[in-house]
Structure formats: structure tokens, C-alpha cells
Amino acid sequence: MSKFAVRTLGECLDVELRPHGASVTVIAPGFIETEIFKINNQGVYDKDLPVELPQFLIASPDKAARKIIKAVLKRKPSIVITKHAVVLEWLNRYFPVFSRFIAKKFAEKGVI
Structure pTM? Predict the structure, then answer.
């Protein structure tokens, strides 16, 4: 629910601030290659902790930064960074029941 709330807040702020020359870009990063994957369930950094996601789902920080900067400069209202997240967002928009089914399967496997 918090992701939905942040997106909605960003969209509302964008609508309210555009007439004053400001814009808001909501960023949905997906999985970015950061040290967050090396934090265990106790909140402790562990450099040897294995990443349990397939590498093709993870974007590099450089690629993510370039996409974010481009979106902000173009004053886009929102951007999704990773390709799989774009597909999932599209599925959620046009096939919400199917996307909930997929999310449930991933949750059962402990991926999300």
C-alpha cells in the first residue's frame, strides 16, 4: 500500500506544481545492484550473502542513474527502471487478476 500511496502522492504533487513550473517524477526502480542485497534479516551487512535473484532482473546503478536523470530532465511524471518491472506494471494495468496471480506465486517462493 505504501508504494501506491507514494505514486499517488507524486502524481497529485505533479498536477498541482506544474502550473508553477515545478514537476515531480515518481521512480519505480525495480531491482538495482546495490549493497541492500547483502543485508541479512537481522539488518547486518554480510558480504558473503548470496543474491537470490537472477542477474538479468537486476539493473546496474549506472544504467539506473542515466534513466532517472533522463526522466527528470524530460519532466516525465513517472519512470520504471528495469525491463521486467515495465512488463509487470503493464500486466498490472491491463490484466490485474493475472498480475495478482503472478505476485502470489512469487510471494509463495519468497521472492517478494
Answer: 0.74
